[in-house]
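Incident log, entry 3
Record: Alkyl hydroperoxide reductase C (181 residues)
Problem: checksum mismatch between cached and fresh output.
Input:
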Amino acid sequence: MLTIGQQFPKFSKIAVTSLEKGKEFETITSDFLVNEDNVWTVMFWWPKDFTFVCPTEIAEFNKNFGEFRDRETRLIGASTDSEFVHAAWRRDHDDLRDLKFPMLADTSKSLAEDLGILEPNEKIAYRATFIIDPTGIIRWVCVNDLSVGRNVKEVLRVLDGLQTDELCPCNWEKGEETLTV
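Fresh output:
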């Protein structure tokens, strides 16, 4: 699995960005991650669309979209399902209709494989979360087993810590003192 300090892999994938007819899909590339505007990226993966734990996580990321935007961080959700399955799921599920971030489709499973998060038996993605800095470097990765949803507030806490570029003690939260040496 790729880890902290490594370059996020190159990719070009179709994503669902809207439910408006004719504007549903866009191509997102790894070039989107690297920028001079100091914009960070959180890419989070789920195993399968039309399941039970996954929409709770996606909806929670969406509820916190403003928190990520306030931190100059873009969100990208991803799975190995197709863009058509993503679009159908968004239309079908009340909590997913108004998503404010793209749902990336890794149907070839190449990006999940490059990241090392492809579950070996079913060939679906683990619940992986990557925080990527504006230079395209992975700064944090967390992977949950398929049955356990992640904690979006923890993703925000870690993002806050990384963005201070200082030493942050255990359980540190934004606004608290960092460590000095």
